[in-house]
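In response to reviewer comment 3 from the previous cycle, which asked for concrete evidence that the modeling workflow produces usable outputs, we include below a single protein chain processed end to end. The sequence was submitted unchanged, and the resulting structure tokens are shown without manual editing.
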Amino acid sequence: MKFKDFCEKKDVKISIKRYGIDAMSAMAQGLFASLLIGTILNTIGTQFNIEILNTAGSYAMAASGVAMAIAIGYALKAPQLVLFSLAAVGAAANSLGGAGGPLAVLVIAILSAEIGKLVSKETKIDIIVTPAVTIIFGVALSTLIAPWIGVAASAVGNAIMWATELQPFLMGMIVALLVGIALTLPISSAAICAALSLTGLAGGAAVAGCCAQMIGFAVASFKENKVGGLVSQGIGTSMLQMGNIVKNWKIWIPACIASIVAGPIATCVFKMQMNGPAISSGMGTCGMVGPIGVYSGWVSDIANGTKDAITAMDWIGLLIICIVLPAVVAWAVNKLLRKINWIKDGDMKLDL
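The workflow returned the following structure tokens.
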């Protein structure tokens, strides 16, 4: 049997969709179910002095590498022994990858899962061979390349954050638009932000751009989708509109302009920063994770002495950037585009 046919038999197929969309989206879910929910529980526990939430949050955060790797293996349809063995691989890659841990987990878990699938059920001692090969390969690869992946990811993320500090207006606009677009596309903006450790002012711009996409589509399509669409897009995902975007790309204009407007106002006017977990930068108003991340950053800043208190202006800025501004801008632009017939009734209709 040719190697190509063997790979086909083992469901090892090199594909941009498989690795860049399916695996990355699964990784983001793994991050959400560990680091992100852990941070939220920790924040609530700290604010209301609930010890069990602090404990649960700490354990959830510690399991992030494991959760990401297993989620990736699940997306790649790894056999059970391979899937469970990825726990050790994820822990190693995330730890050795440093600030770029999520990106290291993505790359190394994909390679380890595919190697594990190739040897799975090929020997009479599969219960030993498959986990041993998967773990040894994954840990060895983590030792060799995870630190370098971490350095590269940190360099890119730091460059974006440095450029945003230097040119907050222009970079605020660019970061908000690009991360916002990634949120609506069938890829994971959350995973991208986590992989690049995108925080600070650039993280704030990313939050603004993502919120603008979700709130923008929710408001612009209210005529077609009513309250159900407002909720499913506003606190769910703007990705629901991808099918309609393919049919008429112009429906994306109101949300994109809302991102372009919200980004620099976040960076230049309110100087909104994401000092919570980087994954929150790419979540927008999905479950209100973006705003909660900004809030958890405020709490952390107060704890480490870099911020005195949460002010009324902080709350006003968060509300304007994440909700009010995207809604107003998207509504106005949508109304204009409907008048000139670029957007027609039914173009943004969802099957809810």
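The two ends are 48 Å apart (CA to CA). We consider this sufficient to address the reviewer's concern, and the full set will be provided in the supplementary archive.
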